[in-house]
Write a structure and sequence with these properties.
By secondary structure, the chain is of the alpha/beta class. It has 11 helices and 12 strands. 31% of the residues lie in helices and 16% in strands. Helix 1 packs parallel to helix 4, helix 6 runs parallel beside helix 7 and helix 9 runs parallel beside helix 10. InterPro entries: AFP_Neu5c_C_sf (IPR036732), Aldolase_TIM (IPR013785), PseI-like (IPR051690), PseI/NeuA/B-like_N (IPR013132), Pseudaminic_synth_PseI (IPR020030), SAF (IPR013974), SAF_AFP_Neu5Ac (IPR006190), SAF_PseI/NeuA/NeuB (IPR057736).
């Protein structure tokens, strides 16, 4: 797959995973807290910080009929109306500029998820480097077209989507002008369980849609994200907070700063470990040959002496003949005198 550039970062198989810290509503309606989150994400080594661009009124209507209520005892937001949730979680639009500015000062890429066309127009005024489409909007084809027409890279989460729906979204984006596309394997539960994450889908999705694939991860901890790198994920997105104890709409399944630092380090290690298909000794392993076993003289020998189990043993280090030749050399005569501790080689037999 082609390398995609977002800001100064190259994204693709030949580069470390691109790590996105998702602020979402974890600012708890405090701009100073939002800026602290930016600073903590940068210190932890995240490559990008993402926010969300909407208001309660661009998301839904203020209505408490059953259709507009969250009625799920297992949900973090049970008994809230959609309007109440988005009113609590949204990032005020006047905060975007200072958040973007602080990210730039700290050398971190900043972008956002728009949830309607007015948000795209607003984000274009801020010259965002790319766009993220949330899982719940991935079937909003008019929004997909609007974003694709900016000709900027698109990152699209696919939670709940069937293969046919993803195909329709990808086709719509490409036909509208998107040339750089990354799909994100995602499970749209909050939090998500590892059992429902199904990251084996990543290489299948990559092959099916011929584009880069990442992971938008709502599981607790970093294990699933690290594992996804081995399956080809080039982008990892995790929700991020200063402290889960401080609360917030997404805090329960968000990483804290030390965990984000671990995510950045361990996903890079996982990527570095992939390497190539390789057998045999690497350059780095050459000094370890002494820890192999091989054939050695364990007594002083004179020319003409017969090799036997009393004067030849299989020991470390590994500079003599491999152990598989032990039975072959027994009974053979030695061609010259050797000292105890001499490796047995063919020229001695």
């Amino acid at each position: 797959m082609d390398v995609i550039k977002i800001g100064d970062k190259a994204i693709g198989e030949g580069h470390p995973p691109f790590i996105i810290a998702e602020m979402s509503g974890n600012h708890n309606q405090s701009l100073s807290r939002a800026l602290e989150i930016v600073e903590a994400a940068a210190e932890a080594g995240a490559h990008a910080l993402k926010i969300q661009t909407y208001t309660a009124d661009t998301m839904t209507i203020d209505n408490k009929d059953d259709d507009f209520m969250i009625q799920d005892k297992d949900s973090l937001w049970n008994e809230k109306s959609l309007y109440e949730l988005y009113k609590e979680a949204y990032t005020p639009w006047e905060w975007h500029q200072p958040i973007f500015k602080r990210c730039k000062e700290l050398g971190m890429i900043c972008f956002s998820t728009p949830f309607d066309e007015s948000a795209v127009d607003f984000l274009e005024s801020l010259d965002v480097p790319c766009y993220k489409i949330a899982s719940f909007e991935s079937t909003d084809l008019p929004l997909i077209r609007k974003v694709a027409k900016t000709n900027k890279p698109m990152i699209i989460s696919t939670g709940m989507c069937s293969a046919a729906e993803i195909e329709e979204t990808v086709k719509t984006a490409k036909e509208a002008g998107c040339k750089e596309l990354i799909l994100m394997k995602c499970t749209s539960t909050y939090p998500a369980s590892p059992e429902n994450t199904n990251i084996r889908t990543i290489p299948h999705m990559k092959e099916l849609f011929q584009c880069q694939v990442g992971l938008s991860d709502h599981t607790l901890g970093v294990g699933v994200a690290v594992a996804s790198v081995a399956l080809g994920a080039t982008v990892i997105e995790k929700h991020f907070t200063l402290s889960r104890d401080a609360g917030g709409v997404d805090a329960h399944f968000s990483l804290e700063p030390e965990e984000m630092k671990t995510l950045v380090e361990e996903t890079k290690r996982a990527w570095e470990s992939l390497g190539n298909v390789s057998y045999g000794m690497t350059k780095a392993e050459e000094s370890s040959i002494k820890f192999r076993r091989s054939l050695y003289a364990v007594k002083d020998l004179q020319a003409g002496d017969v090799l036997d189990k009393g004067n030849v043993r299989i020991i470390r280090p590994g500079y003599g003949l491999p152990p598989k030749y032990y039975d072959i050399v027994l009974g053979k005569k030695i061609t010259r005198a050797v000292k105890k501790g001499t490796p047995i080689t063919w020229d001695l037999i």
